[in-house]
Amino acid sequence: xxxxxVSVLADVIQKDPVxxxxxxxxxxxxxxNATGAQVGSVxxxxxxxxxxxxxxxxxxYLIAQxxxxxxxxxxxAAALAVCSGFIAQAAAHQYYICDPEEAFxxxxxxxxxRLVLAGIMPLEYRRAxxxxxxxxxxxRQVFGLTALDFGRELLAEENVPPPVLQTMRRWGQPYQPxxxxxxxxxxxxxxxxxxxxxxxxxxPAFGAEAAVADAIAGIAGxxxxxxxxxxxxxxxxxxxxxxxxxxxxxxxGITSLPPAMVRRFYRRAEETxxxxxxxxxxxxxxxxxxxxxxxxxxxxxEARDVAVFARAPDGSETFVLxxxxxxxxxxLFPGLTVQAxxxxxxxxxxxxxxxxxIHDARDPKMAGHLPEWLAxxxxxxxxxxxxxxxxxxxxxxLLVAWSKPRRIAPPPGFAPTLSALLTCMAxxxxx
Length: 431
Prior knowledge:
By secondary structure, the chain is an alpha+beta fold. The protein contains 18 helices and six strands. A six-stranded antiparallel beta sheet has the order 3-2-1-6-5-4, sandwiched between helices.
């Protein structure tokens, strides 16, 4: 995916007036363009939205637009592809295996075979889907090969980048962790995302609401050798994927996905939030004290500063400085707040519930996007912002900072420590 040149992507967008209009409109939304600058070209849109994010947006637009002219089976396959992508994107924010935008693309394209089969052989595809819960087995019985294998063969003929093809296989145990295990973990993440999306979109409900979380945890369990604690994180992942799907459909005016399937996905996303519906924790369990968690964050990132903002006890959109460590943190005044609605990178992180990595905070392009306390002379040269999700939105915000600009790469397996710290600080603030 990283082999796709910017000019090639721009050419794809410019050739389709509908996609072009949606991309330009997206680049002018508050979430991407806080200054309200007018956007009149694809080059400007790429600059504002970001190349990685625009790739996943373009793919999702292409799939959704294709569904507008498609039959019922292909529209269902499009919904599966898009929802799988949003689940993978949310999961990638937890595990840092790859860029979340690339995770979206990998998970989407795993369903390329289904999209094609549903379009050219809808009756046979419908029969394959009716043969039982194992849809890949049904495809093998009807077509002689699985939809995943078919899609991989088609994409291989189109010379798509190798990382896409590497993720287009079934994940299976036994799994042996190794230093260079990113491809296998990506396969696990994408395979899990597809299975979970298919379950959430399927007609039979889980049954009683209390069974929803247990069912989702059951799907996640086999993947835990590659994705630790996935059973505990699966609920928040589905919830965040629901938020992203709703934003994609409503903000972009997408109406081509089957309404019944979309409503089922929304319902699953909401049901994972309900406290009475779960043996599944909405957050990672707190296994570290505050000081130990802060020390681990600093050590893991080789960072100079950490600061944590916890949601105000009244449940408002205000997040109050609750603790931290480091020389820059000690310059912050007690009671410093971040507002979820503010037009800064901190507010954007809370509104979109996504990690934000600023490799060079001194870049002139960042002017106007930083809160005042991150724009001072002694402010960090690079920083990362991480939100902690709760049942009703973000509970806390973590700042990790370095004195000089640098390339930020969250360490593997960092999610449990991050969740423990943010949960600890949020509960301490609310006490």
